[in-house]
Each structure stands twice: as structure tokens, then as C-alpha cells.
Amino acid sequence: MEGLTVSDANLTVYIHPSMTNKVRGAILTQLSSLLFRYSEDLEGVLLAYQVNVRNKVARILPGLVPHFGVKLKATLLLFAPKPDMLIEGKVVKIGRESIHAIVLGFSSAAIMRGDIREEFKFQIEKGTETYICKSHKGHRIKVGSIIRFALKSMDEEILHISGSLMPPNTGCIHWLSKCGMEHDPHTKRCDPLSLSLSSLDVNI
Amino acid sequence: MATHEMEDGCLSDSDVQSSVAEILENVAKPPIMISEHDGDLYGQLVLMLIPVEKNLDEEILFVTALKALSGAVSKINNIFHVSLLRNIFSIYIWDYGLDARNAILELITNLAIVPDKFLEDCLEMLVRNFQPPGRIRGYIYQPKFRSHKQNIYVQLHEALCYITSLVPIAPFKLKDILDRRMPKVHAEKMEMLPFVECMLGLESNEIGDYLRSTLLSMVVELLVDLDVSITWGHILKEDNNKDIFDIELEDFHNAEYNPVGVSGGKKDNNPDKLDCLMVIVCEHIKSSASDGHLVKVFDILMESFRKTVLNAYRSKFSQFIMFYACSLEPEICGLKFVIFLIDIFVSKAEDPISRMSAVCYVASYLSRARFISCSVVSSLIKRLVEWCYEYCHLQAGSERINHPKSHRLFYAGFQAVMYILCFRMQSLMDIQELKSVLFHLPLEAILCDPLDPLRICLPTIVKEFLCQAMAAHLLKKPLISSLQDNLLESEMSAAFGGVERLHMFFPFDPYLLKESDRFIKPNFESWSMVRKTYTNLNSEDELDDLDPLSADDGSEDGRDDDELAGGDDDEDELEYSINQMSITPRPVFEIAMADGRVLIPSRMPARIRPSVSPV
């Protein structure tokens, strides 16, 4: 699956004076408030973090409420898919007009009829809605299947993904792995990168 | 064209769906480019979906149109189909029958999962449906509509759960919407109650795992807001003739309750709203207990309590939800609550007001909760007394008390001990192990300390405590209490209580809301039912002098301490029931009487055993 990166980040967390005796808890709360939200600074959705090193000294900001800024290093797991990347998700609803899937447990993806390639036909097989591939009868997509699809766009506010099953290497993972389509040399897979993001300020 | 075909009756669902899809596509252009025919068709479609009451035929058309739209959601556009969407999102499902409701909810759930567009509007529409439309609000709580109301709630919850299963972050958005739509204190009763009931129903669903803390804390905040807006002004005047042990207005329910005006003098009838809300919340807690997830609910309630109720010292009734929740699960929740409070009291990291408030809660809770066992009470009293004793030691050597306020934690803590013992002393004495624990407590050392709690704490409590302690022979040394007769509070006690009047804060005093009382009453210990250590003695005049003065309103009707009803005899003798009283050989001690007489007991007990009382 593409779009996931692991980054190292240098962050500064500003903490309210009332939390002076519970600094670690305050840092964790602050970072947790960023989870599953798209962050422009981080250019992606924060999925997980690990706080590594924390300075023992913090600088107090002058102001009405004197917050103090704790500098720390953290390892972040980010989800930042770009268009045409291949994403995997679990199908939760099949309809005549669309397929709906959930990606990484938090993002809902929808693939509209216009983005499903012609060879997939909608049928109701034994009471279950299924998409069956005309050319390969074994290739079926139904509720519960894991599918790979190409990303068209992602709404940053609601984390809705619009996907497409047009590229030939998309479809049900189970069938694709059986046919050896998984390791398509044309797809770009990103290895987890180590990026240094400098001085990101997280404001309270 | 579409209407004609529908009336024909020979079309399949997919045909209807495709014609509706076509209508939608044909108007998805700038207005100039839409043909009149297409515009008319679209207009007819919009008309079919107008959210008004419909007769049978109209409702059938309505259902058909909805089902067709459900299949064509991808064609719906929020720029070109504004009027259609406006009608859809204004629908009240309460107005229609089961088929229509199912069709509406299917459309809404399908719209919610279309990428980017309609999620918030759909959630908003569902939340708006937590409250019935104005015209039926008045009778929705009548018994014959109860199952209808429940069905609708179930459908709404199912729709929300279904949307969450397809769009996992829906609860985030729902939180914001609930926050915005939550009725405030001044809302009408019939707006408030259905909303809160439906909201709490969500908590028991799958979606509850995400939203539990938000939902419960919002409800608790509403309860507290209502509570503090009710003033005691017209109900109970601070009367020096009444004291704490008489404020048992058990007959209050019979009186007409006049709603106390909130600011501005409006008759908001907040007590009635609060009463009904308490019923709803207690019912919900009860059903959580029977579903087996009371502990989770309780943890959230305790957190909300800590943030809102604990320091809202004008709250009179909302704290009883904790009382009720504890009573359902005394070993787990009941114990957890009191330990949580005591931890706040002893923790140096907390602010003094919270600490004092916490110990007042401990005092009132341990006295009034019937479901707390004596052994728990005994161990907690021991912990409090030991804290007080240590405090005295730390203060020893420092200058004499300059002002009660500087030692207010100590006075609050010891007053709590005395208050609990007023209620529980006799029951502790009945159990041998607990009695010996009590006798080993360093009570006299604390009482004789320079901090002098007897002078500073509330006179009525001091009086009652001394009567009971001396009758039980808990105290050996003569203690001439400098009692200011008949005063509810003294200058000194007011000084330690401060502006917040925490010296007179007994949060679990008798509950006064009529409807919700049925949840509280079975577990609530009223003062009239408490066995005191001196009730074993003959009820004579001497005891009457020691007793708190009775008030002259009707509040005593509930009391059944006949012995203390005030005899006119002037007996000097105290008759001891040998079975009940202490078995230690009694030294000759003096009981100081309020009128200055000194009483010496005239009889020794039949059995003598070695003393077990502390030096």
C-alpha cells in the first residue's frame, strides 16, 4: 500500500502553565489531538506517533498566559496519499452505482460507477451484491473483500477518498495476488522515508 | 412524464430510478440552459418531497420518489439541486409511517456516504429528529405514544450506527453537531426531554464507544446548569431555629411546589425540568447496569462529576446521579466513588476548595448511603481520623490558631468524622471488631488539641456528636463544650467555611424532587431512621436538653424517635439498658448539661470487663 510514510520530526509543543506538573501527559494530549486529522504542517494525516527525546528545559513565552514550549523529537506515521497511488481498503457496501470501502479503519472511500472499469458487472448472486469481472470469472468483489484501487482525490476535512478501479492492476487483492499482479513493475512503491521536518509549532 | 409513468403502475424500480436520475441530470446545468419541460419535471419531484403531512396517496408517491432517489444519489448535486436537498433535509420522520420512515432513512444514509458532500447535513438532519416537531411535542410522553417514540429512536440510532460503520469519522462530526443542538437551560421541557433521551440511547449503541464521554458529560453539565439556576430562596430560609438534623423536609412533597424564578423573574419551571431529566438519566443508568456496562458509564460520570459537580456547591440534586449509580453496584462503584473523594481530600496537589468539598461529599455520602457496609465506613473513618491526628502533630509547636481559616482543611475533615459518627455510631458499636476500632481511634487527643475543633466546628454537629459519644462511652475525659445554644452555625464555623459556606455543605441532604425520588429513596438514610446511641436510654428531659432543638414546622412528622419527643419529667436518673450500653467499667464522669447541671450516673452495669477504651 502506498501513501504511508514514517518521518522523524522536530516539534515544539506549547503547554499551559496549569499542566506544569504533568508535562508528559500534556504533550501526549496535545499530540493526540492531531490524530486522524489532516495537518498542513505535516502534509498528511497523522496516524501514530512516538515521542523520543524531550528537552529538559523549556522556554516560556511571554504573554497573558505564559505557555512554555517543550522541544521534542518524535517519530510520526503519516498517511499522505497522492493521486494515482494505489490504496487498499475493505469493502463495506456494494451498490449498483458505487462501491464503498474503509481504508486503514478511519477513512471512507467511494468508487462511483463511472470509475469502475467496464469489465466489472454488478450482479446479485445468492442474495449478495457482487461485482464480477466478465473476463475473469474468479475475480469477484463483494462486502468484506479487500480491494486495491487508485486514488483520485482525498477530501482533507472529512477524509473521504474518491477512488477508481480503472487501472488494470486494481481489484480484489486475493485474486490479484493469485495472478501475480501484485508486483507490477510500473507501480511506484515508496519506502518509508526519513524526513526531517524542522521546527513545527503545535499551538494550544 | 415521470408522474404519468408512476401512475401507470407498470414500471420497475430500476426504471423509476433511471427516470429520476435523468431528471436530476437534466437540471444540473446553468438555469438558462434548462428546458421548461425538464424544469417542470424537476419541480414536480421537489413538490413530492415537501416535508408536510401527507394523505395516503401522497405518502405512497413520497416513498416511491425517496426510493428512486436513494439509488440515484451520485447524481445529486449541492449546487443545482438546492431546493430538493432543502426539502429532504427538512423532513421530520415523526410525521410518517414505517415505510416512509425506512425510505427516508435509507436515502439519508446513502447521501451520507457520497464523498465530500452531504455527511454533515445528513447528521444534522438526524440529530434534528431527536426532537419531535412542535405540534406533537405536547403528547409524546403519554403512555400510548411511548412505543412509537421508542421505535423512532431505535431507527435513528440504527441510521447513525450504519453511517458510522461506513464513514468511521462520523462520530467526530456528530460531536460538534450535538454540541450545537443540545438544548440549553432555558429550552422548553418538551424540547429538552426527547433530545436527552435519544442522546443517551446513543450511548448504549456501538457508536457509544466513541461518544460515551461526550454524551454523558454534556448531560451532566445540563443537569448542573439547571440545578444551580434553582434557588432555595423561597423554599428554605436559613433559620437559626432549625438545625442540620431537622432539615428533613419529608413532607415537602405534599406541598405545592412553586417554581422558583430564575434571573429575570421568568417562571421557567426548572425544578420540573430537572426532575424529569433526573428520571431519564436514572432510567438510563439502570438500563446500563442491566446491560452490564455500568462500570464504563460510571467512570465517565465520575470524571464529569469531578469537573462540574464537585465544585458547584450550589448543586442540590445533580450529585444524586452518582448516589444512584453507586447504589446499583455498591461493591465496585460505591467504593470507588468514596475512595476517589478521599484521595482528593488528602492530596496536596489539589486546591483547598476542592479538598473541602470532597470531604463534605464523603461525610454526607457515608452517612446517607444505606448500601455502604459498616466495615467500609469504619475503615474510612479511621483513615480520616488518622489524617486529622497527623495534622495535629504537624501543627504542634507552632503558634496557637490565629484564625480558623488557616486550618480549614482540618476542621472540615474532623467535622466530617463527627457527622458520619452521628449517623453511624450505633451501628458501628453493634459490631464488636468495629467497636474496638472506634475505641482505638485517637479522638480525645484531637478534641483536646490546641486547634480545638469543638469550638470551631458547627455547634449542632458538635452537640449531637458529644451526646452520642458520651452515651456510648467513646470519650472518657470530661468535655465541657462551649456550646452556643440553639445556634445552627457560629462565627467560628462560618470563618472556616469561607465564602463558599463549606462548613454547611451537606450535598446528600434529603432529596426533594418528586418524580425521581423513587430512585433515591430506597437507599437513602434519613435522620429520623437513624438509631442513636442515646435512644437506648430512657427518653427524659435531660436528653431533650442534649438533643438538637426541634423545628416548629411540619417536618418532624416523619421522625419516629418517640423517646425524644420531649417529655415533661424532670428525672435526674439515667437508666441504662445493660444489653445495649458499653460493658467497660464506667469511671465516674460528668456529663455537662446545657442548663449547667452535672449528672452522675447512679448505677453500675451488672457485668464488668476490662476496659477496652483508649487512654
Characterization of the model:
The complex is a heterodimer of chains A (204) and B (615). Chain A has 204 residues and is mainly beta. Helix content of chain A is 8%, strand content 48%. Chain A contains two helices and 15 strands. Chain A has helices at residues 23-32, 173-178; strands spanning 4-15, 38-39, 44-54, 59-60, 68-79, 86-94, 98-103, 107-112, 120-125, 128-133, 140-142, 146-154, 160-164, 171-172, 196-202. Chain A starts with a strand and ends with a strand. In chain A, 27% of the residues are buried. The model of chain A is unreliable at 184-204 (pLDDT under 50). In chain B, strands 1-2 form a two-stranded antiparallel ribbon. In chain B, helix 18 runs antiparallel to helix 19 and helix 19 runs parallel beside helix 23 (459-471). In chain B, strand 1 (591-592) and strand 2 (598-599) form a beta hairpin. Chain B has 26 helices and two strands. The interface between A and B is medium-sized, with 24 and 18 residues. Chain A: InterPro entries: RNA_pol_Rpb7-like_N_sf, Rpb7-like. Chain A: This is DNA-directed RNA polymerase subunit. Chain A: Keywords: DNA-directed RNA polymerase, Nucleus, Transcription. Chain A: It is found in: Nucleus. Chain A: DNA-dependent RNA polymerase which catalyzes the transcription of DNA into RNA using the four ribonucleoside triphosphates as substrates.
